[in-house]
Amino acid sequence: MSTNDSGWGLESLPPGLPDPEVLARLAAGFFGALPGAREVAEGLAAGAPLAPEPASAPRPPSVPGGAGAADAPASPGFSFLREARPIFGGAEATPKPGIAAPPPIPSPAAAPIQPAAGEGPPTPSVPSALGTAESAIPGFSLLEEARPLFSYPPSAPGPVPAFEPADARPEFAALNQGPRAFDVETIRRDFPILRERVAGRPLVWLDNGATTQKPQSVIDRIGYFYAHENSNVHRAAHELAARATDAYESAREKVRRFLNAAAPREIVFVRGATEGINLVAQSWGRQNIGKDDEIVISWLEHHANIVPWQMLCSETGARLRVAPVDDSGQIVIEEYERLLGPRTRLVSVTQVSNALGTVTPAREMAAAAHRYGAKVLVDGAQAVSHMRVDVQSLDCDFYVFSGHKLFAPTGIGVVYGKSPILDTTRPWQGGGNMIQDVTFEKTIYNTAPARFEAGTGSLGDAVGLGAAIDYLNRVGMENVARREIELLHYATAALETVPGLRIIGTAREKVGVLSFILEGVRTEEVGDYLNRECIAVRAGHHCAQPIHRRFGIESTVRASLALYNTCEEIDALVAALQRLQVARRHRNS
How far is residue 104's CA from residue 174's CA, in Å, rounded to a whole number? Predict the structure, then answer.
């Protein structure tokens, strides 16, 4: 058995790893820092044999292959600290117009930083831009050298009749080219669930409209919060309260920058977009909307942007008016403007349709509403993961989104509100944190945003949301948008080759959402068949029944894309649908 100075055996290393001597040196440095390592090392030096592994001991699970699979990170407990890994590769070239090139990426061959003796738990640091940054746990940054970078190609269930895959189609030849090619395999390695296998097949996740998967950096940042910072915020003088408060308020500032809000006090943490809309309805709405006033929405809305306003109208005697859409699924802006008038108090409209992917003219709609003195709420739940959002440019009065649609945890969301509006709006819920002074005679409310955050919020999830924003900032929202538009074009062309398939929602401006029906096959049957192929899509009305009925249907199958999806996954979806149609025709013949 070959060994190095550390005494670690090297004969059973699998192929594809770095040089055995380098790997052993790195592993020795890592395990030498663990509790009890000194006693083990002394025992080895004295010639004490290591206890053999019992024959019945369970083996650790192996990381599956498949689309974008790779070996597990060398330091999984601290993978959110691997800020130095570049996300783009490829030769340098002249940047495309309107798209800023990422800064140069330093070589990863720099010497690792060794931990200082006696250091306590470090505070995580986040880089300000794409590229390398100093690791928050410098003592373990050397382990990134040992992380394998190979991956396995995705395996499609079968050939796609009458459809050429991406690498054979010249019109999509530029998909992985450009100033710095979008390295999707590097992106995919950041999302551990994409290595999951179901019934022996690699997972194809095309249900991003329902929820996005989480990068390891988000998962680990949440774990770090609960391991090193967990406390309630704003209410104690001890060290953990200070750490938790700093982490929580840092997340608020990250959201502010992400939305380009004017100040952190304009950012209110809630459970999600649904709670955010209800907060506006039950606080600002009750205070400002009365009998015969009008609220304008559109046919595109999610139920969460319909039901709260129906409830408010029922309580106050206000009227709900609905802007129509054309046959492509886009709001008819002329008809919308005809709905506006002196009684219009609020326009509440989605920025991106969750059912069709339509990108609405939200900025123009807000400007028209403001001409009549109405306030504007924009539902950004389906927009924030696909495009850069600027609430000041939109000039909306409220903006809501959910963290879990943005690669962040469930149970956290955001309401943006302009400061003058929040300052004059009464709170919705009462309790701790939202008060300045309480007597039995009266209560003096806190200022925004605290007045809208009664009780203990989802602190760890808010920190996770901040980590998700950090991740997207490193990738670059412009890069995400460009990649997804390319995937959308590819997927649209691919799905159109499936006999009997009709895409619902063909607006010129849309994001990576493709809802469709298959002639002669119920949507539930399609969803079930694709699930057996390990392809996750959504089958149903997607909490948007009115827009389905606008097109004379009750449900669709929805494939929704994200930055980690690939052309090969789209090929797998198309191939499965082709087989389903062949099987249906054979069954009916």
Answer: 21
Structure tokens belonging to residue 392: 């000041």
Phi, psi of 499 (to 5 degrees): -60, 135
Closest CA to 102 of 468, 474, 420: 474
User: 237 near 215, Cβ under 8 Å?
Assistant: no
Return the closest-CA partner of residue 348 out of 357, 358, 336, 332: 336
pLDDT digits 0-9 by tens, 344-379: 999 999 999 999 999 999 999 999 999 999 999 999
Q: Quick one: 17 exposed, middle or buried, by C-beta within 10 A (0-12, 13-18, 19+)?
A: middle
Residue 173: which residues within 8 A CB-CB, separation 6 or more?
none
How far apart CA 540 and CA 207 sit, in angstroms, is: 12
Closest CA to 284 of 425, 448, 434, 454: 425
* Cα–Cα dist 400/464, whole Å: 17
Concatenated DSSP letters of 5-23: TT--B-TTPPTTSS-HHHH
Q: Can you tell me the distance from the alpha carbon of 114 to that of 432, in angstroms, rounded to the nearest whole number?
A: 45
Q: 286, 337, 332: which is closest to 313 by C-alpha?
A: 286
Q: What tens digit of pLDDT does each residue of 298-352 get?
A: 999 999 999 999 999 999 999 999 999 999 999 999 999 999 999 999 999 999 9
CB 256 within 8 A of CB 264: yes
Cα–Cα distance between 59 and 146 in angstroms, integer? 21
Which stretches does DSSP call E strand in 449-572? 501-504, 513-518, 535-536, 538-540, 556-560
pLDDT in tens, 80-114: 444 433 333 433 333 334 434 434 333 333 333 34
Catalytic positions, written as ranges: 543
For 513-534, give one letter per residue: b (16+ CB within 10 A) or e: bbbbbbeebebeebbebbeebb
- The DSSP secondary-structure symbol of 61 reads P
Backbone torsions φ then ψ of 45, nearest 5 degrees: -60, -30
